[in-house]
Amino acid sequence: MAYFPETLIATRFLREGGGVVSPNERDLLKLIWRHPGLSRSEVTAHTDLTQQSVYRIIDQLEERGIVSFGSPKPGTGRGQPSPTLRLDGRYAYSCGISVNTDIIGICLMDISGNVLAESSVALRERTMAQSLDLVREQLIEHQRVNNLSEEAFFGIGFAIAGFHISGTRYNAPLPLHEWSLIELGPLLTEFFGKPAWVRNGGKTGAIAESMFGVGRYIKHFAYLSFNYGFGGGLISDGELLLGGIGNAGEFSGMYDAEESKRRPALQWLIERLNRNGVDVPSISYMRKHFDPKWPGVAEWVDEVTPAYSRLINAIWAIFDPQAIIFGGQVPTALAQMLIDRTENFDRPRYGVQRPRPKLIISEISSDASAMGAAITPFKSAYY
């Protein structure tokens, strides 16, 4: 039986008439998300709705506790001052869980996008059951410390490395073989007692970038997720592009078996560093302690540059993004080394070049995949 988390949403979050929000409510909530502090009187100019309809819908959202009214903007003219609008974080929160090959990231976030807590669980030599037990222990502790009620707990966003098969089944790298090819949605719902939205980790990283990073001012970009493997996501007009099966942005798929070993997957860099006498036990350790002068780093960058540059040019030609974002678990200095070696294949015509996408290092310093997983339930249901 197909798994749909929407059917498991608690009754207290549902509106009269069914569903969580109506299409018009969703449009207004998306607008308020993008423009927190927008006054109620300003909303009509951004929609096709009448002012009367806008006021009625916003009042209903405020009554439900989803939207809160703030102080009017100063100097907004004569007449009754119009309150400013924000999503009310007290209404609901979620838990984002991101499973990488060496670590599980945890992020609690409220519906307004405020990060309430972050932590992690080391995955090495732990079974899936042991890891989930530790995640639940940390979740309960975060709820206690932040005085979060179970009633306001909306759901779970879950991200995993690996490509999508069907339903909530993913084919993850070898270190995550126990998590692979099983229906994760029902398993997580039974374990946490909440609906679970399951995505690929590169895709949730792209979602986080679109909501909290460069997506605030760039609406079309490709997100490169450098992890144990190498994947990512595509954001088109501010929304995640899934493709026919849900694997749009699985960039490693363009390489054959031999070239795959020369793609910019961090597993290969760690192996090279260890061979050169640098003890790097995990990717999370490397991200925290990375030194571009480590023996083997420059050689690895030189080795992957041809495959990397071909990918950059393929994304540029096929997707035509405004920017390409370097994210995932890549150390900033390593990302800059790759950017510095980028070769553009463009051939100017009449002395004019095709406009190039900007190459930007993500400014999200925490676990972007976990952040994107945390906001996925709200983005799916509300905005």
UniProtKB/TrEMBL annotation:
GO terms for biological process: N-acetylneuraminate catabolic process; regulation of DNA-templated transcription. Transmembrane segments: none annotated. It comes from the Bacteria. One of its GO terms (molecular function) is N-acylmannosamine kinase activity. Pfam families: HTH_24 (PF13412), ROK (PF00480). SUPFAM superfamilies: Actin-like ATPase domain (SSF53067), Winged helix' DNA-binding domain (SSF46785). InterPro entries: ArsR-like_HTH, ATPase_NBD, ROK, WH-like_DNA-bd_sf, WH_DNA-bd_sf. This is ROK family transcriptional regulator.
